[in-house]
Amino acid sequence: MTGAEALQLLKDGKPLRDANLSGANLSGANLSGANLSDADLSGAYLSGADLRGADLRGANLSDAYLSGADLSGANLRGANLSDANLSGAYLSDAYLRGADLSGANLEWRSHDLVAELLRQRAETDQQFAVAGFVLMHRDWCWDKFLACDLQGKLWAIAVLRELKCPHIPGDGVRDGE
Q: Model-level pTM?
């Protein structure tokens, strides 16, 4: 299905659940609130697309180009975002639980994304609490987080350094806690 065909289906009020949109050019498309659950959007070009509140549960977005896309409030539970480009994507209040983010070019300014990365790697109550702390302090930038006195912060720093977060210093910070 082409991007134009998908947009026409949306205009006609039809859901795109399970749709094959692999490689489709949906740049700048208004997909706000669309049901794209379980859709194949692998390799799709979604730069600047409006995906606010879209249902993308279980969708395959591997290798998708989402730079500048607005995914605010989108449900990405269990979505495959491996190797996707999320740089510059808006992810405020996006639900990312269980999303596969391996190899993705990440938007490190997104509290939701950082918290999910930490949650996926957490093993103790304290580590889960740090992930929640990131969500509760959406008004904080990296410098404030790095300077705060928080039990479990050094674990988070080690995890984020391993993920190659550009905001985490490479030297001078202990890896463990």
A: 0.82
154 and 141 in one domain? yes
- What is the number of alpha carbons within 13 Å of residue 176 lying toward its C-beta? 0
Range of the domain at 161: 108-177
Last residue of one domain, picked from the residues 107, 124, 159: 107
Q: Are residues 151 and 137 part of one domain?
A: yes
Check: CB of residue 42 under 8 Å from CB of residue 20: no
What's the average pLDDT block by block, 10 residues per block, for the chain (177 residues)?
A: 71 80 92 94 96 97 97 96 95 92 92 92 95 91 90 92 88 44
Instruction: Decide which of 107, 129, 146 is a domain's last residue.
Output: 107
Q: What is the DSSP string of 18-68?
A: T-B-TT-B-TT-B-TT-B-TT-B-TT-B-TT-B-TT-B-TT-B-TT-B-TT
Residues 6+ apart with CB under 8 A from 108: 114, 165, 166, 167
**pLDDT, position 16:** 82
Residues 6+ apart with CB under 8 A from 79: 56, 57, 58, 59, 60, 61, 96, 99, 100
Same domain for 93 and 149?
no
